[in-house]
Amino acid sequence: MSFLTAVAVGAAEVSLSQVWQALTFSGSSDKIIMLQEIRIPRTTAAVVVGAALAAAGAIMQGMTKNPLADPGLFGLTAGANAALAFSLAIFPTLNYFGTMLSSFLGAALGAGLVFGIASINKRGFSPFRIVLAGSAVSTFLYAVAEGVGIYFQISKDVSMWTAGGLVGVSWLQLKLIAPFVLLSLAAAFFLSRQLTILSLREEIAVGLGQKVFRTKIFLFLIIITLTGLSVALVGNIVFLGLMIPHLVRAVAGRDYRFILPLSAVFGAIFMLLADLLGRTINAPYETPVVAIIAMLGLPFFLMIVNRGRSDF
After folding, report:
1. What is the set of domains in the chain, with CATH numbers?
2. pTM attached to this predicted model
3. What pLDDT does 125 receive?
4. How confident is the model at residue 182, as a pLDDT?
5. Where are the alpha helices (DSSP H) in the chain?
């Protein structure tokens, strides 16, 4: 229902029959072509990215036992953006598969820097130390991306990525990215039982015969893949991966066999509605979806900080 609403509503008015004709490829009017080439790919991208980021956030929160975990706050999206900036500067004719690969490597770099800095303290990780490290690393990597854009005179292209949005998403991009997102989500669902045990205590996981290190590596690769692909498709989206798992956990409890699929579903719906609001709140002008999500996410983030870790 949310998908159909997002397709039907926008600056250009269309009827339900035209939406149906566009979805079934049974018409050829200008409005139907507009739906098929612009609005439907954009709406599909919102579903893919919302599901990917929400699932990535849920996995991060379960792995780190950190209620503040979010791909955008832990340096993954900033790392992917920086890698994209270097790719655009050094390989201006890079195809979209190369863009995906650079986003993946950049997300891994950002996460590695954050966890490396946060682990310097001998007392180990704490939710706030990781968030501070994430903020510092993200700021640094965003500055690097902007510096690369200025030096190589590609600031406009870099800004398009870092702004975050669904404008201009094409079927070609979706065909390259959506299958990898679906495979990563399937792998995450497959490992959801191990993640549930891991989110309680590592000692319990070891006692039950779980190969903790190997499980963490697989889950970490899934997080990087989902985040890197999301950045390659729509740019930087922060706070979505923080909010949705918390809302789902209030309903589904602590079992990640339910948390992960519900996070993917509700993340997709949330992204759809946020993009719809951005397209209609000031039509025909567009409000960036990243701004709408941030306006909702920042108060939510402060609320989680205020509640502390005890309720997680």
Report:
1. 2-307 (1.10.3470.10)
2. 0.86
3. 56
4. 96
5. 2-8, 16-24, 30-34, 40-64, 76-90, 96-118, 127-151, 155-163, 171-190, 192-200, 202-207, 212-234, 240-252, 256-280, 289-307
Task: Round to whole Å and give the CA distance between 264 and 246.
Answer: 13
Which residues of the chain fall below pLDDT 50? Answer: 309, 312
Q: Answer for the pair 89, 154: CB distance below 8 angstroms, yes or no.
A: yes
In this predicted structure, what is the pLDDT of residue 41?
92
- CA dist., res. 44 & res. 268, Å (int): 9
Question: How far is CA 255 from its chain centroid?
Answer: 22
Q: Which CB contacts under 8 angstroms, 24+ apart, belong to 147-151?
A: 148/82, 148/85, 148/86, 148/89, 149/85, 149/89, 151/89
The distance between the two most distant Cα atoms of the chain, rounded to a whole number of Å, is 65
Looking from the CA of 80 toward its CB, the CA atoms found within 13 Å total 32
> Strand, helix or coil at 35?
helix
Q: Which of 305, 214, 196 is nearest to 256 (CA)?
A: 196
